[in-house]
Amino acid sequence: MRRRVGLTAFVLLFSLVAAVFGAASATAHSRLVSSDPADGANVATSPPAVTLTFNEAIQESFAVLTVVGPDGNFWQQGDPSVVGPAIKVNLRPLGPAGTYQINYRVTSADGHPVEGKRSFTLTAAGTGTPGPSAQQAADDESDGLPIWPFIVVGVVVLLGGGGVVVWMSRRPA
Ligand SMILES: [Cu+2]
């Protein structure tokens, strides 16, 4: 009897440790450490490109880096390129003065997506022409990563742990 209780406690503890470890590893993805232009910077002329640097090499596939101007249009030119920990996208010559928002979404070295925003301010209007409307692009695109696979995995882990406990408690002593 004492042994069965010990086993049950062990299984419960193991499930708990697995759950905690899973949650902890989810927060250990790549982290943005700097941007060029710097976050919140004022620039008087168009930077040729935007570069974001992470704390470790990121995956080269599925990287997104866009720059949306105060006019709501895209101002990046072409697709971003990833080299080691850095992702870079060229900029068009900028247009209206104001805040340009940098939006990024990259795949962390551990496989998790990481996304966020930075911004800089153009203090003097340029003469560039914008790319397509960012709002239009957002409307066309479906929402990001679905959350249901994570829920399924969580439920499977919980049911699996519970099943082992039931199986152990039913075993003849
Ligand atoms: Cu991660």
Q: What would you say this structure looks like, in words?
A:
This protein is of the alpha+beta class and 173 residues long. The chain folds into two domains: 1-29 and 146-173; 31-141, Sandwich (Immunoglobulin-like). It has three helices and eight strands; from the N terminus they run H-E-E-E-E-E-E-E-E-H-H. The chain has helices at 2-26, 134-140, 148-170, and strands spanning 32-36, 41-43, 49-54, 59-68, 76-83, 86-91, 98-107, 113-122. Strands 1-3-6-5 form a four-stranded antiparallel β-sheet, with no helix packed on it. A four-stranded mixed β-sheet has the order 2-8-7-4, with no helix packed on it. A hairpin with a 5-residue loop joins strand 7 and strand 8. Residues 26, 28-29, 108, 110, 112 line the site of copper (II) ion.
